[in-house]
C-alpha cells in the first residue's frame, strides 16, 4: 500500500479535526508527564542534613552529630539517606585543611543518585527503538508500567539495594518519556500550533515543582511522599493510557488503512463526514519500510553531523540543568522552599518562551540563554562567599529559568531537524548522551565539596564549553521536516527513474 505524506498536508479541514486529538491526548499525557516529571525534584537521597538533640544543624562536611543516638529523628526530614544511614556520621579526618571522607555508605548514596540517569541512558536506547519501529502507543504503555514498578519497589524496599534498583527503573521509564511526549505532540499538532503546544508541555514541569513543595510541606516521609506523588497518580495514568491511540502520522508509514480510520474517527467526533480520497493527499514514492538502529545516525551522512553536535550539547546542558537540582539541596533556604520558587521561575520562563520563540531564530535564542546562564554563574561565583541564603535562592531561580528555556529550545530543535522515520531514535540517542552528563553530577559536586572547590566554577566551565559548541549548530527555523532519510529518499527516486526507463 502506498505511503502517504504527512496527514498535515491534508488541506481542507484537517486543522479543525486536529483539536480532538490535541485535547483527547492532552489530558492523558499531561497527567502522565506531570507524574513523571515530579521524579526530577523528589530527591529520595536527600543530602544528609540533620538536627541534633543539641539543636545544632550538621552535615557530613562540617561534622555530624556526635553519636547516632543524638540525631533528632522527630524533626529531621525522613529521607532514605537517614533511614538507611547513607551518610558518614562523624567518621571524618581533616588532612591539610581538607576533609577526607571514607565511607562506603556515602558512596552508595552517590551511586543511587547516578543510577536514575544511568537507567535513563539505557531507557533512551530501548524505548526509542521501540517507538520508531513498533509505535508510540506501545512505548507510552511500557513506560508507565515500568515507572509504576520502579516506584512500587522503592516504596516497599527494605534495603538500599532494592531502593537503588527501583531508582534505576524510574530513570529507565521517566527519562524516555521526555522523547515520547515531544514526538507525540509533534505528530498530532497542526503545523501552525506545533511550537506553542510543544513548549506548553514544559510548563507542567514548573507546576510539578510547585506541587512537590506543597506535598512535602504536609508529608515529612519519603515513602508517603512517593505513594501520593508517584504511585497513586501512576495507577490513574495506567488506566487512562489505555485510551491513547496511535498517531496517524506513524500509521501512515505502517498501516495506511488504519490511519484513514483514525482520520474518519476524528471527523465523526467533530460532526464531519470525511470522504478521504488518495488523490486529495500528496503521495511519496513508495519507500520500503526499514528498521533503524542507533548506528544509522552515523551511517548516513545527512544525519551524522547534527547527531554529534546535538549529543555534545545535550551532555553539557543536562549537566547544568540537573546540576541546579542537586545544588538546591546545598544552598538557599531549604530544599522544598527552593524547589517551590524554582518551579515558579521556570513556569514564568516557559510562559515567556511561548511568546518569544515563534518565528524567531532557534539558534540565536539557544545561544542567548546559554550566555545569560554563564553570566549568572559568573556573578554567583563572584559573590559566592558573601551572598546570604535569599540571594542564593534568587540566583538559582534566575539561572534555572534560563537553562529551562534553553532546554525548551533544544527539544524543539531536535523535533525539527531529524526525519520522522528515525526521529525518536535520534532524539533518544541525543538525550541518552545527556543522561551521561547528568549521571556525573553527584560525583563532580561531591569532589568539589571535598576539595573546597566552588560549585559555580564547575558549572561556569561547563557552560562556556557548551556555549562554544552551540555556535556549531544549524538553524532549524522554517526547516521543513522530512519524513524519510535523505539518502533513502534519493535512492528511491533514482530506482523509480531507472524502472521507468526500462
Automatic annotation (TrEMBL):
Can you tell me where the transmembrane regions are?
114-131, 138-156, 162-185, 197-219, 225-244, 303-323, 335-356, 365-383, 422-445, 457-474
The places in or outside the cell where this protein is found are: Membrane
Topology relative to the lipid bilayer, per the entry, is:
Multi-pass membrane protein
Query: Record's superkingdom?
Result: Eukaryota
Q: Name one GO cellular component term.
A: membrane
Q: Which UniProt keywords apply?
A: Membrane, Oxidoreductase, Transmembrane, Transmembrane helix
Give the EC number(s) listed in the UniProt record.
1.6.5.3
Q: Name any one Pfam family assigned in the record.
A: Sugar_tr
Query: Could you tell me which residue ranges the Major facilitator superfamily (MFS) profile domain spans?
Result: 64-478
Q: Name one GO molecular function term.
A: oxidoreductase activity
Q: Give the protein name, as stated in the record.
A: Major facilitator superfamily protein, putative
* Species for this entry: Ichthyophthirius multifiliis (White spot disease agent)
Amino acid at each position: 500500500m502506498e505511503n502517504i505524506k504527512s496527514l498535515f498536508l491534508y488541506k481542507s479541514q484537517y486543522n479543525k479535526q486536529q483539536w480532538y486529538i490535541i485535547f483527547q491526548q492532552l489530558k492523558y499525557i499531561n497527567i502522565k508527564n506531570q507524574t513523571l516529571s515530579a521524579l526530577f525534584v523528589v530527591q529520595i537521597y536527600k543530602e544528609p542534613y540533620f538536627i541534633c538533640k543539641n539543636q545544632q544543624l550538621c552535615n557530613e562536611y562540617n561534622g555530624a552529630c556526635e553519636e547516632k543516638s543524638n540525631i533528632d529523628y522527630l524533626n529531621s526530614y525522613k529521607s532514605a539517606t537517614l533511614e538507611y544511614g547513607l551518610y558518614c556520621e562523624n567518621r571524618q579526618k581533616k588532612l591539610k585543611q581538607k576533609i577526607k571522607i571514607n565511607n562506603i555508605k556515602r558512596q552508595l548514596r552517590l551511586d543511587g543518585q547516578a543510577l536514575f540517569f544511568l537507567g535513563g541512558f539505557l531507557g533512551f536506547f530501548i524505548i526509542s527503538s521501540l517507538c520508531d519501529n513498533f509505535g508510540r502507543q506501545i512505548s507510552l504503555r511500557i513506560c508507565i508500567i515500568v515507572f509504576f514498578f520502579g516506584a512500587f519497589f522503592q516504596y516497599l524496599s527494605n534495603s538500599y539495594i532494592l531502593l537503588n534498583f527501583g531508582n534505576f527503573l524510574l530513570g529507565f521509564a521517566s527519562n524516555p518519556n521526555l522523547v515520547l511526549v515531544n514526538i507525540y505532540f509533534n505528530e498530532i499538532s497542526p503545523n501552525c500550533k506545533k511550537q506553542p503546544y510543544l513548549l506548553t508541555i514544559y510548563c507542567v514541569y514548573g507546576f510539578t515543582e510547585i506541587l512537590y513543595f506543597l506535598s512535602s510541606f504536609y508529608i515529612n516521609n519519603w515513602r508517603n511522599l512517593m505513594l501520593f506523588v508517584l504511585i497513586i497518580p501512576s495507577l490513574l495514568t495506567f488506566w487512562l493510557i489505555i485510551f491513547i491511540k496511535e498517531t496517524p502520522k506513524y500509521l501512515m508509514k505502517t498501516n495506511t488503512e488504519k490511519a484513514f480510520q483514525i482520520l474518519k474517527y476524528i471527523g465523526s467526533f467533530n460532526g464531519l463526514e470525511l470522504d478521504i480520497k488518495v488523490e486529495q493527499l500528496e503521495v511519496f514514492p513508495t519507500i520500503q519500510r526499514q528498521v533503524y538502529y542507533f548506528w544509522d545516525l552515523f551511517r548516513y551522512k545527512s544525519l551524522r553531523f547534527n547527531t554529534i553536535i546535538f549529543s555534545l550539547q545535550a551532555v553539557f546542558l543536562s549537566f547544568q540543568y540537573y546540576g541546579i537540582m542537586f545544588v538546591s539541596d546545598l544552598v538557599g533556604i531549604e530544599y522544598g522552599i527552593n524547589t517551590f520558587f524554582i518551579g515558579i521561575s521556570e513556569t514564568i520562563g516557559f510562559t515567556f518562551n511561548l511568546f518569544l520563540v515563534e518565528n524567531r531564530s532557534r539558534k540565536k535564542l539557544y545561544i542567548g540563554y546559554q550566555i545569560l546562564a554563564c553570566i549568572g554563574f559568573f556573578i554567583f561565583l563572584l559573590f559566592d562567599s558573601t551572598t546570604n541564603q535569599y540571594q542564593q535562592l534568587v540566583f538559582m531561580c534566575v539561572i534555572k529559568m534560563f537553562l529551562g528555556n534553553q532546554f525548551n529550545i533544544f527539544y524543539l530543535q531536535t523535533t525539527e531537524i531529524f526525519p520522522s522515520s528515525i526521529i525518536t531514535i535520534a532524539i533518544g540517542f541525543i538525550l541518552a548522551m545527556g543522561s551521561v552528563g547528568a549521571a556525573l553530577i553527584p560525583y563532580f559536586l561531591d569532589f568539589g565539596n571535598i576539595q573546597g572547590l566552588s560549585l559555580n566554577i564547575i558549572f561556569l566551565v561547563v557552560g562556556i564549553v557548551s556555549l562554544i559548541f552551540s555556535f556549531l549548530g544549524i538553524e532549524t527555523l522554517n526547516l521543513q521536516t522530512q519524513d524519510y532519510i535523505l539518502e533513502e529518499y534519493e535512492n528511491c527516486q533514482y530506482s523509480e527513474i531507472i524502472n521507468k526507463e526500462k
